[in-house]
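Journal club prep — side note

Before the paper discussion, L.F. wants everyone to see what a predicted structure for a comparable chain looks like in token form. Sequence:
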Amino acid sequence: MCRLFLIIGFVLGIGAPVMSQTVRLSADERGAVEERVKKYCGFMELFAGNLEQIDKMDSIFAMCENDKVQTFDDISPRAKSGDIEYNSLPLFQYLQNITSKFDNSLQVEYSGFRCEKVVSEPKMNSLGLGGSGMPGGVSLTNAYASVRVVKKIKGSGIDKSVPLRIMVNLSSFKIGGTVSEEYEDPYSLYLEGVEMLENGDERKGMELLEKCSGYKTYPGRFRAMTIMGVHLFCKAKWAEAERMLTMASEQDPVGGVMLAQMYVMSSQTVDLRIPAHYYNPTKAMQLLERYASVEDKDCPEASLVASYNLAAFYIQGNIVPRNLDKAGMYLGKVDKYVEENNAHDGNFLVLPYLLRIGIASVRDDLLELKSNLIILENLFPVLTLGADYKLILYSYVYGGLLGIYKKEKNTAKYEEYLGKLKTLNTPVCNKLLACEYREANKYEEALKYYRLAADGGEPDAAYVMSFYYIPSSGIDISQVADGFDRFLYSPRPDKDAAKSLSFAKMAAEQGHADAEFRMVQMCFDGPSIGLPLDVGSGVEWVCRFANSAGYSHARLVGAGIGWIVNFYLQNKDKDILSAFERKAAQGDPAAAYVSYQLYCYVERDTVMGFEYLRKSAEGGFYQGLYDIAASYSSGVNVARDYGQVPYWANQLVERNFPIGYVLLAEYEAEVNHDYKKEMDLYLKAIDMKEASAALEVGKIYLEGRHGHVKDLERAKFYLSMVEEFLQVQFSPSGADLIAEAKLRLGQIEAASVNGTLADSPEPSTSYMTQLDVLSDQVLSPDERIAESERLLPLLFASSDAVVKIIGSNGTTIVATETAADFLMRLSTAPARVKVVRVSSELNAEGKIIELIVREEK
């Protein structure tokens, strides 16, 4: 039921916020704000003029965001000094001065109350940062109404009138601070800076915010940093945004939540393409866990948002291993906030139901899922949501209920919701309808709605339409199993390579990873379907795709880089290498990785290649991080240095790549001989569905290695996970992992029959040891060459048998040789070469027809 998977994705990853929106108040709303300020000023008058009214301090604090709101110091000569940092004080300190300096004997009178304007912070919400996407999510933005008043003060040594502005938070209706109309202070700079950004004067706005953030006594300086960080983020100034939000997150929960969003938004946004090397779920979780337990008085919604995100991550199981108990715990926090704050805003009301829908979907609890979808639908009339967001929410709720009624075989309700989707007629609705008709094998109807959705800009549908128009020469239909796909690719008169390219580009430009990979193919292999070769665009798409796709698309990233390497191998076009080197020089980590591949495995320049590998790893590119850790561990392309392995492996762990735990486990076993740590690290990788870790733990229990008791049941438990994990987690050597797991499971099965565990050779065959001898420098060159001549007819079906060499990413074929050339190269190598079998094909006589290997020097 594809619509249920779609709704899970919607629930847990909806949207991006809009930037600043002007708030306009009606006459009644302005009147209510003025009355609020009059009440506050009345308490201030009573407190200032009578020591017996000192208890009004509590009433004053209760009306404010907190007891530290910045208050213009109109009772001290310091207010006229050139050092503006001390022109205002935290409210509690200002009130203490009235008591300590004037014994609460000041005559104070406020007049001329006039609500003039609203100052709004840039929009920041629960669903991320910036962009021009849908305005959904819980707002983390404060908007302040500015009320102009005149304050008369008489007392010991004071007799003056002071023009002031008192700020009212329109979300909480609490006083946010008081500033002077005549003198600057840090808070007035903050308000002016925010207003400048709202009005489009970015240079002046950022200048004022930076200035006020430098005053260490100003409590709001961290919020100023948050605003600057968000603004830099929306300008795609990633490094500056990260630096500013990191500083802000020390004290400002909103800054912490926004920084956490940045660390997990890589490759998930449409309008802003965050480079993948900023993906750091470990830091994101730390920030969210910290602020889920802290309720900020200025922005209590930050705790709510942190709790919502944590619950969503534990439901998804992508950022952290799925844990529905923890998801339920954070759902409880969200429920509590909504109940205690009597929330009526639709953005708040929908959150607990969205999480319940996610949990029910994972549990396949159709009753709970249906119940919450119906509750959401019933809330539609009272939800105060943005129009675009509301339409998308409606689309997914209707789609979810359609799937449930279909499963229940409730024909009347099924037809009702089918009609609702058609009436709503959004691109999302049309995609859901296309999925429905596709499942029902009504391919013409499915195509109709895919076309409508694609014409509306829906990326999944645009990707499908790119295959509809692709000329038949681009697809081998005999290899296509899915019935709709065969229909899609079938020959027809309207095939059009240019339209196919246009739809693929439409989807790719919205961040559709599969479509980005399709663009790589169409740029480099365009001539096969009538498109021109476009190397320049191909280079750009490879880097864009590889930098943003992330670990979940590692297989496609490897294949995309393989297109480049093989194309270069065939053409030796130096302009391609130069194009990647130029991008690498600009700091592109994927371009540096491709340059490393080209230098090491085509140009055979490992020194230059390793320099690029280091640049790629330092840029956070996950394949670069893995290759450099593996290189230091094995001594391939660089001198072996075990001391470097933990650093690079931990970089992978921080980015939530489970292979990092595997590298650390191997390090602990081989270098420190700490087998307890080894097992702990393997188990962490297994929690994240890493197949190679499951295989190693299975072998440990099978063989009773490293101090663990031999346990065939445990061995079987872990070995059985390997194939299952490879369905959801990519591994370049997946076929070999499955083959070895099956071999070991076969041993266990045999042992259950005959009562003993039979010895079995490693899946790598004995001839690999013989190949290693060919480059053994202890032997003379003549002895090695003679051995190669002896092995050629012994191992290979003929001298022309094919030998393929793959790169360190485990997917790219970097060289193809005949068996004779391969053995001669090994026997004349200047240093020892370790040959690792990847796969082989044998003839009936057991001799090699094709051999695929990886070389480690």
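L.F.'s comment for the group: The longest helix spans residues 27-49. Keep this in mind when we get to the figures.
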